[in-house]
Amino acid sequence: MFRKPVDKVSRRNLLKMGTAGAFAVIGSALLNPFGKTTLAADKHSVHNAMKEQLHDGMKHGYVPSTEVTEGFKAAQKALTAFDYGKVSKLPDGRTLREYEISSYETNVEIAKGIKFPGWTFNGTIPGPTIRCTEGDVLRVKFTNATSHPHSIHFHGMHPTNMDGLEAVNAGGSFIYEFEAKPAGMHVYHCHVAPLARHIHKGLYGNFIIDPKKPRAAAKEFNMLMNGYDLDLDGENEVYTVNGYAFAYQQEPIKVKVGELVRIYLSNLTEFDPINSFHLHANFFNYYATGADPEARPNFTDTIMQCQGERGILEIVFPAPGRYMFHAHQSEFAELGWMGFFIAE
Questions:
Q1: What is the mean pLDDT of residues 135-141?
Q2: Tally of CB atoms within 10 A around 87
Q3: N or C: which end of the chain has fewer CB within 10 A?
Q4: Does residue 4 surpass a pLDDT of 60?
Q5: What DSSP string runs through 156-207?
Q6: Cα(317)–Cα(222) distance, rounded to whole angstroms?
C-alpha cells in the first residue's frame, strides 16, 4: 500500500524556495509521465539542492528565463492563433465550418524544466481556439486517441444530443454539428466524470462566436487562465495564461499607444474557486461573456472569473510604457501568472 509522505513540497514551499529555480529541480521529482502514483519530493532535500539558486521570492524586478522552449513557443502561438475551420457553403446559403479535434496523452511543457503529463485536444494545453460567426453551422469531428473515454462539451446553445455528455470511448469518434449561437466568448471542455481530473489534465479551450455585426477593429489576443497540480494533492503548484508560466513576462506583449486592444479571456483553473486579471496603470472595459457588443461594460482594472466563466476586455493604452498584468491572487502571480504589455 502506498503511504503518503508526511513531508512534501507544497506550493507555498515552492514560493519560499524561489519559483524559477525550484521549477527545474522539483519537476523530475514530482512527475512520472502518465504514472498513476506520483511521489512528492522531500522539501529539505530540494532545499539543499537549491542553495545556489534561491532568491527572496518573486519580485516585480524578477526576470524569467530567456530560453525559447517548446512550451514558450506554444504559449506565444496561442496568443494570436484562431482556428476558423475549413469553410464552405451549405445549399441554404449558410456558412459551414468544419474542424478536426483529437484527444491525446501528451507531455506538455508548462515551465522550463517541467513537463506535465496532460490529456490534450490536438496536443496542446489549452486546445485550439475555435472561432466562427453567429449563425454558422459547425461540424466538429472528434477522435479519441487516448486510453480513456472523453468528450467535447461546447458552451452555448445547441441540441442536447450535441452537448457532449456521452463519452466517446478510446479509439472512437463522434461528429458534433450545431448552429453557432449566441454571439460571445465561450469555452469548450471534456465532460466525462470525474470532471475535476479530465478538466485539470488539460482538455479545454476557448470558443469565440463573433456577432453578425462585426465588433470595432482591434488588436486581438486570446488568453486562457489555468493551473497545474503537480503532486496530485488538490492544490495547484503552477499557474499560467495559455499554458506556460511567465510566458508574457519573458516576452512582453507589444501594443501601440492609442489602438484598441481586445482580449478574449477565460478561466479553466481547477481546484481554486476563482482566478482573476488585474492590469496596472490603466483601466479597461469588461464585457462579461461578451454576448452583446452594445452592452454597457464594467470599467475597471480588475475582474474575477469562476471556472468556466469568460469575458472580453477592451483596452486602450494612453501612453508609452511597460504595463504589468497578473492574477490579483498574489500566490498565483508568483507561481507563473504574470506578464507585461509594452506600449510603444
A1: 98
A2: 11
A3: N
A4: no
A5: SS--GGGSS-SPBPTT-EEEEEEE--S-EEEEEE---SSHHHHHHTT-EEEE
A6: 18
CB of 32 within 8 A of CB of 116?
Answer: no
255 dihedral zone (left: phi>0; alpha: psi -120 to 50; beta):
beta
Burial per residue of 188-205, b for 16 or more beta-carbon CB atoms within 10 angstroms, e otherwise: bbbbbeeeebbbbbbbbb
Report how far apart the first and last C-alpha atoms of the chain are (Å, whole number).
59
- Kindly report the backbone phi and psi dihedral angles of residue 30, in degrees, each rounded to the nearest multiple of 5, phi listed first: -90, -30
- Identity at 120, one-letter amino acid code: T
pTM of the model: 0.87
Q: How many other CB atoms are there within 10 angstroms of residue 262's CB atom?
A: 21
Cis, peptide link before residue 128, omega less than 30° from 0: no
Could you tell me which of 95, 102, 101 has the C-alpha nearest to residue 179? 95
CB within 8 A of 32, min separation 6: which ones? 38, 39, 117
| Beta carbons within 10 angstroms of residue 38's beta carbon | 16
Q: In Å, what is the CA distance from 192 to each residue of 58, 148, 325?
A: 37, 10, 33
Beta sheet of 130-133, edge-to-edge order: 130-133, 204-210, 184-189, 153-154
3-state SS assignment for residue 126 = coil
Using one digit for the tens of pLDDT, what is the confidence trace for 75-122?
999 999 999 999 999 999 999 999 999 999 999 999 998 999 999 999
Cβ contacts of 128 within 8 Å, gap of 6 or more: 81, 83, 99, 101, 121, 122, 205
C-alpha cell at 255: 501594443
314 within 8 A of 265, measured Cβ to Cβ? no
Give the 3-state DSSP-derived string for 11-54, with helices as H, strands as E and coil as C.
Answer: HHHHHHHCHHHHHHHHHHHHCCCCCCCCCCCCHHHHHHHCHHHC
